[in-house]
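Input (structure):
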C-alpha cells in the first residue's frame, strides 16, 4: 500500500479545502434555496429562526462527535464501521446498508429533480433525457478519481456559497431601503399579525423536521475523512468551518426571508424545485429589482441538485466499499481500480439509482415506496452516530485512556449524543402523527417504512451471526495513526 492510501485501501486525495467545502455543500441545497420559505409560513419568522438555531446546534454537537471518532479512526464509510466496532456488528451492518440505500435512492430523486429544473428553459424536451445526462455526468465524475470528484464538488459548492453571500448582501440592503425602491422594511414583518411566533409549539416542531432535512449531508465529513490527505487536521477544521457557515448562512438567510416576505404570503407555500419562480431567494432578488432573478436562481438550483447527486453517488459508493472491507457486503465491492476508485461499488450504485428512476415511469407506486423507504434514513444515521460516539467515549475512559490522548475532542460530552438522540427520535416519531389518529395504514407505511427496514437488517444479521453488544472493555478504541497505516502496508 502506498503512502497516499488509508488503512482500508482507498487513496487519500482529498485536500483540506475539499473536505471543508464538500461537507458544507452537502448541507446546502434545495432545502435552503426552495423550501426554506415554507418554514416561515408555518411557524412565523420567530418560530423558524428558533427551530433552525436549535437544529443547527444539534448538528454541530453531532459533527463534533463524528469528528472525534473520525480523527481517531479515519475510514471511508465511517458510520457503519464505528457502529460495528463500538456497539454491535449487527448495528454496523444495518447502518451501512441503510445509508447506502438512502443515497442510492436519493441519486434517483436528484436526477429527476434536475430534469424538472431544466424544464424551465426547455419545456418540450423529454425529462428522461436530462435525467439520463445528469446520471452519466456524475458517474463519470466519480469514476475519474477522488481528486477529480473533490475538485468539481468544491467548485459546485463554492457557487452555492457565493449565491448565498450575494443573497444576504442584497437582502440586507433591501431591508434598509438601499435597494428595492428606497423603502426601508426594517423588522415590521416580525410583528405582522401573529408574528413572530405562529402556530405555537406544534408549528415549531413541524419546522424542526424541515430544518433537519435541510442539514442532512453535513455527516459527509465522516465519509471524506477516509480519503483526506490529513484527516487529523482537515476534519476538525471542516467541522469548525461548517458550523459557523451553516449558522451564518441558514440563520441569516431565514432572517432576510422573514424580514422581506410576510409569513402570510401565499408564495411561501408549496415551493418545489419545479416552480423556481416562487423560491424565496427569487422573491427577494425580484423585490430588490433584479429582474433576471428566476433564471439565475434556476441555474444555481440546478448546480445544487447536481452537487447533491454527485455527493450522494460518492457517499453510497464509499459506504458499500467500506462494508465489503468489514464483511458486511460481498468482497467484490472492495476492489479499487488503478485510480483508487471502488469501481464495482460505483457501478452497482449507479444501477440501483437507474432502476429506481425507471420505476418512476414503469411503476409510480413502487417509486413512491422506494423514495419513502429512504426518507428517515438521515435521521437514523444520526442516531447511530450518537450511539456510537457515546459508546466510544465510555469505552475509551473505561480502558484507562485519558481524553487528552484524543487529537480532537467532542464539545461538552455527553450533551451532543444525548441531544441528538432526543431531537432525532422526536423528529422520526413526529413525521406524521395525524396518520395514526386516522389509522391511515398506507400513509403510516409510506412515512415510517425506514424504521422497520433498519430493524429487519439489524435482526437478520444478529440472528445469523449471533452477535452481541460489545463489552466496553473489549471495544477497539485504539487510534489509527500514520504509524499504524504504515504497519499495515
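Output (sequence):
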Amino acid at each position: 500500500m502506498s503512502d497516499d492510501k488509508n488503512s482500508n485501501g482507498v487513496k487519500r486525495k482529498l485536500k483540506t479545502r475539499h473536505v471543508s467545502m464538500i461537507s458544507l455543500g452537502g448541507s446546502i441545497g434545495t432545502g435552503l434555496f426552495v423550501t426554506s420559505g415554507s418554514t416561515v409560513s408555518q411557524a412565523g419568522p420567530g418560530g423558524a429562526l428558533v427551530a433552525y438555531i436549535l437544529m443547527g446546534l444539534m448538528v454541530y454537537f453531532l459533527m463534533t462527535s463524528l469528528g472525534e471518532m473520525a480523527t481517531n479512526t479515519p475510514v471511508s464509510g465511517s458510520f457503519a464501521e464505528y457502529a460495528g466496532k463500538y456497539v454491535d456488528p449487527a448495528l454496523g451492518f444495518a447502518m451501512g446498508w441503510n445509508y447506502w440505500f438512502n443515497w442510492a435512492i436519493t441519486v434517483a430523486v436528484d436526477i429527476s429533480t434536475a430534469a424538472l429544473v431544466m424544464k424551465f428553459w426547455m419545456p418540450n424536451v423529454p425529462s428522461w433525457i436530462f435525467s439520463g445526462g445528469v446520471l452519466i455526468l456524475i458517474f463519470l465524475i466519480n469514476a475519474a478519481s477522488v481528486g477529480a470528484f473533490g475538485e468539481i464538488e468544491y467548485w459546485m459548492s463554492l457557487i452555492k456559497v457565493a449565491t448565498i453571500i450575494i443573497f444576504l448582501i442584497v437582502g440586507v440592503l433591501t431591508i434598509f431601503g438601499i435597494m428595492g425602491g428606497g423603502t426601508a422594511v426594517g423588522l415590521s414583518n416580525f410583528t405582522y399579525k401573529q408574528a413572530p411566533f405562529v402556530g405555537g409549539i406544534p408549528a415549531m416542531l413541524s419546522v424542526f423536521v424541515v430544518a433537519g432535512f435541510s442539514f442532512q449531508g453535513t455527516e459527509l465529513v465522516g465519509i471524506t475523512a477516509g480519503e483526506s490527505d490529513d484527516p487529523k487536521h482537515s476534519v476538525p477544521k471542516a467541522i469548525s468551518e461548517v458550523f459557523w457557515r451553516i449558522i451564518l448562512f441558514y440563520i441569516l438567510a431565514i432572517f432576510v426571508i422573514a424580514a422581506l416576505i410576510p409569513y402570510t404570503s401565499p408564495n411561501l407555500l408549496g415551493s418545489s424545485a419545479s416552480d423556481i419562480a416562487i423560491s424565496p431567494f427569487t422573491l427577494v432578488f425580484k423585490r430588490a429589482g433584479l429582474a433576471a432573478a428566476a433564471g439565475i436562481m434556476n441555474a444555481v438550483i440546478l448546480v445544487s441538485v447536481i452537487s447533491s447527486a454527485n455527493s450522494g453517488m460518492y457517499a453510497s459508493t464509499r459506504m458499500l466499499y467500506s462494508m465489503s472491507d468489514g464483511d458486511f457486503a460481498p468482497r467484490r465491492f472492495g476492489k479499487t481500480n488503478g485510480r483508487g476508485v471502488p469501481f464495482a461499488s460505483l457501478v452497482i450504485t449507479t444501477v440501483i439509482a437507474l432502476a429506481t428512476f425507471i420505476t418512476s415511469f414503469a411503476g409510480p407506486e413502487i417509486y413512491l415506496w422506494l423514495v419513502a423507504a429512504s426518507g428517515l434514513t438521515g435521521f437514523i444515521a444520526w442516531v447511530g452516530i450518537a450511539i456510537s460516539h457515546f459508546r466510544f467515549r465510555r469505552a475509551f475512559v473505561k480502558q484507562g485512556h485519558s481524553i487528552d490522548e484524543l487529537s480532537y475532542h467532542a464539545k461538552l460530552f455527553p450533551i451532543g449524543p444525548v441531544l441528538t438522540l432526543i431531537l432525532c427520535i422526536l423528529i422520526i416519531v413526529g413525521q406524521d402523527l395525524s396518520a395514526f389518529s386516522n389509522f391511515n395504514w398506507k400513509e403510516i407505511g409510506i412515512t415510517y417504512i425506514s424504521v422497520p427496514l433498519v430493524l429487519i437488517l439489524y435482526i437478520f444479521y444478529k440472528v445469523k451471526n449471533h452477535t452481541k453488544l460489545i463489552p466496553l472493555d473489549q471495544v477497539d478504541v485504539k487510534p489509527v495513526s500514520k504509524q499504524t497505516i504504515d504497519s499495515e502496508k
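Notes: Residues 286 and 293 are 6 Å apart (CA to CA). The first helix runs from residue 16 to 25.
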